[in-house]
Amino acid sequence: MDSVCKTDEKIAADEYFNKLITSRRCNGIEVKLNETIGKGVYANSEFQEDELILKDQILVGIQHSSNKVDCLVCSFCFRFVGSIEKQIGRKLYFKNLGVSGCCDGDSSESGEDECVKYNGNEVQCGGSSSSHNTLPEGVVSSLMNGETALPYTDMFPLPSPISCHGGCQEAFYCSESCAEADWESSHSLLCTGERSESISREALGEFIKHANDTNDIFLLAAKAIAFTILRYRKMKAEHVDKKAKQSEPKQLLLLEAWKPVSIGYKRRWWDCIALPDDVDLSDEGAFRMQIKNLACTSLELLKTAIFDKECEALFSLEIYGNIIGMFELNNLDLVVASPVEDYFLYIDDLPDTEKEEAEEITRPFLDALGDEYSDCCQGTAFFPLQSCMNHSCCPNAKAFKREEDKDGQAVIIALRCISEKEEVTISYIDEELPYKERQALLADYGFSCKCSKCLEDSSSV
Ligand SMILES: C[S@@+](CC[C@H](N)C(=O)[O-])C[C@H]1O[C@@H](n2cnc3c(N)ncnc32)[C@H](O)[C@@H]1O
Predict the structure, then answer these.
(1) SET domain: from which residue to which, for each copy (predicted)?
(2) Phi then psi for 148, rounded to 5 degrees?
(3) Mean per-residue pLDDT, 341-370
């Protein structure tokens, strides 16, 4: 019976991944099960060096809460929106208010619990520069509201931001289609505006505040749950429409709705999270319990906000822990380069006369921004196909944004020629690090690397 179920599961997984591959038009790859390390991505045609292997869409993703003051991006595809002036003005506005978008390092100031700041996969931000010239409020607001135009910004057009239809004033989009897709995928349940479909906007506000104060990974977990509930409701409605003679049990529909998330998960958050350097081994049990309690508080708040009786199974601590654990082990950093950086580089590259004229206007803004002029959009996201890629310290592929990649999708490029049937691997860490450091970092992902480089290095240590 067990093996029959396993075979059924395998067929369902194959079907799911084949559909995704077709929808992404990346037919040169397939997802296969490897007996020792689970799923893996394999080439089924040859790739040349620098060739695109996969452009994977986000299943659920967030911009880090702390990054929202740095960049105004579409809440669904994470493309920059507004205008160069608006991006610069908004950033200077927050800077003048003393709100910095630094991703970490401020826990001591905020007095937060050490453990809750931890997010194993988070990248480092540039940090805020204290040495900057402050511009007068009027100058900053005229940039934000479009009264001041900077030279050559028409070379960097950005889509006008569209406000969330639910009225939350929190989510903005680059297009109507992104607004609709986000509403249908999860935002209708997680919107704090008046047209929200949550059961308590107040509780939702509390849940969001708790996540922002502790760990914004909870916002991503909420998206995964909202996504599943809305998918379940849609599938149920379609099922009723078809007037199916044999009505599918609700539990089976929920399992089907849940598949895109459940297919990726492996371990509970409090079991797989790496022990931070400053937590003593003897305190490990207490640390893991603290993490579990934190998840429990967050889940209770979420339950009050969006609970659905028919989807009750989704609101167990076990499932919540597994969803966050899945993000911990599978997520990729979501990074979108800033058009503001491109803009200032463009000005710098102008012929001397034009450059001098332009810089007379732009220089005060660049000085006021300081090092932060190039801050990119940063977040974390789960990508269904990319997350099947295994690690190697001598990878044949990498996640890399090209000039034309202006949104949050994961772009995987061949580092060298990859032959048919070869496994496509990426590096989860900086593979240039010494052997012991690499192994220590990979232990956070729950494995010890046995790639050819590690085997060679291990014999010489
Ligand atoms: C992003 S997932 C990769 C896909 C995964 N194999 C699966 O079945 O879903 C990361 C997990 O895959 C496994 N993994 C990835 N690379 C590995 C490697 N080189 N050796 C052993 N396990 C690996 C580890 O369990 C890791 O936590």
Answers:
(1) 19-429
(2) -105, 130
(3) 96
Q: Best substitution site from 390, 392, 451 to test ligand 1's pocket, by max atoms within 8 Å of Cβ? A: 390
Burial label, 212 (beta-carbon count in 10 A; 0-12, 13-18, 19+): middle
Q: Ligand 1 in contact with 38 (CB < 6 A)?
A: yes
Q: Which of 10, 16, 17, 37 for a ligand 1 pocket mutation test, highest count of atoms within 8 Å of Cβ?
A: 37
Summarize the confidence of residues 253-278 as an average pLDDT. 90
Q: Is 391 in the pocket of ligand 1 (CB under 6 A)?
A: yes
**CB of 447 closer than 6 angstroms to any ligand 1 atom:** yes
CA of 453 to the centre of ligand 1 (A): 17
CB 87 within 8 A of CB 338: yes
10 Å CB burial of residue 352 (0-12, 13-18, 19+) is exposed
- Cβ neighbors of 215 (< 8 A, separation 6 or more) are 116, 117, 118, 119, 294
The pTM for the full model equals: 0.89
Give the residue, 291 or 113, on which the prediction is more confident: 291
The ipTM estimated for the assembled molecules is 0.99
Domain with CATH 2.170.270.10 in the chain: 2-57+386-428
**Residue among 97, 98, 92, 94 at smallest CA distance from 135:** 92
To which residue do tokens 């989704």 refer?
314
Q: Is 301 exposed, middle or buried (0-12, 13-18, 19+ CB in 10 A)?
A: buried
pLDDT at 101 over 70: no
Q: What is the distance between the alpha carbons of residues 317 and 296, in angstroms, rounded to a whole number? A: 6
The encoded tokens of residue 245 equal 């003679």
∠ CA 42-45-49, rounded to 5°: 90
In order of 151, 260, 339, 409, the CA distances from 155 in angstroms are: 9, 39, 10, 23
CATH fourth-level superfamily of 2-57+386-428: SET domain (2.170.270.10)
Q: How far apart are CA 439 and CA 29, in angstroms?
A: 28
Say if ligand 1 is within 6 A of residue 390 CB.
Answer: yes
φ, ψ of residue 360 to 5 degrees: the values are -60, -35
Residue 329 to residue 267: CA distance in whole angstroms: 9
